[in-house]
Amino acid sequence: MLVLHRQSGHIEHRQFADLAGFLKPADLLVLNDSKVIPARLRDTTGKIEVLLLEKHDDRHWTAMVRPGKKMREGTTIDIAGTTATVREILDDGTRLLQFALPPDLNRHGEMPIPPYFNRPSDEGDRERYQTVYARDPGSVAAPTAGLHFTKEILEGLPHAFVTLHVGAGTFQPVKSDDLTEHRMHTEHYNLGSDTTRRINRCKESGGRIIAVGTTSARVLESQPPGPLTESAGSTRIFIHPPYEFQRTDALLTNFHLPGSTLLMLISAFAGRELILETYAEAIRHKYRFFSYGDCMLIV
Asked: Fewer CB atoms inside 10 A, N or C side of the chain?
């Protein structure tokens, strides 16, 4: 675990087990408890791949498909123990699929590990690509900062949960020079009453809110000013420099892809130049990047 002190620029090279030593008595970790679903499907021919993105009801999903030319409007395929028909091609190229029966994801689905793994998922990914505290199914990408926790480590730390179902848009790079033109993906979240109570109490006590992962930070920063209240909804917040964080005091995160919205979020949190210097330091020390890699604590 690389530890970056924002104010001084000081960097420490530590182990994740040292995390508790950086917490103050009133601090609170906020983690995303969304559970990754086996959302990648292949039709019976093996030639068409479907990545489910958003569930509308048991039989209707928005999905990415490949190859798109085989999935025109009205096309029906045999997949996941049932059939799926393309009802609409959306503006971003995704498809609205209607299944004859609810797709059996547990039997036919594959874990949607990131494309840069350059390999198919295996049975081990069903456990590895999941946090130990995951409980609310809905994500198609893991909130990877949480993968470092064991149950034993988490039990010894003050923590609370939010839920944000991570979409595949997490991996979409920003391609526009004008950041205002980047269309952020929509992700659904839930912020429960117990969590809001604990966060409000933490702030009243002078503690810090430590977001575990950019997804937890996005939920927190999406909330209106004032004391937090229970809420559920969706967010398309795009955090990039310059942005002044309102609720996140520290951040635990993995090392991210160049050009990603995730890298822009941490650049807004710690400053672009400092993050570039820190990443260079991480490369020199051979930190592992991306989903199954090492992590960085920014305080």
From this structure: N
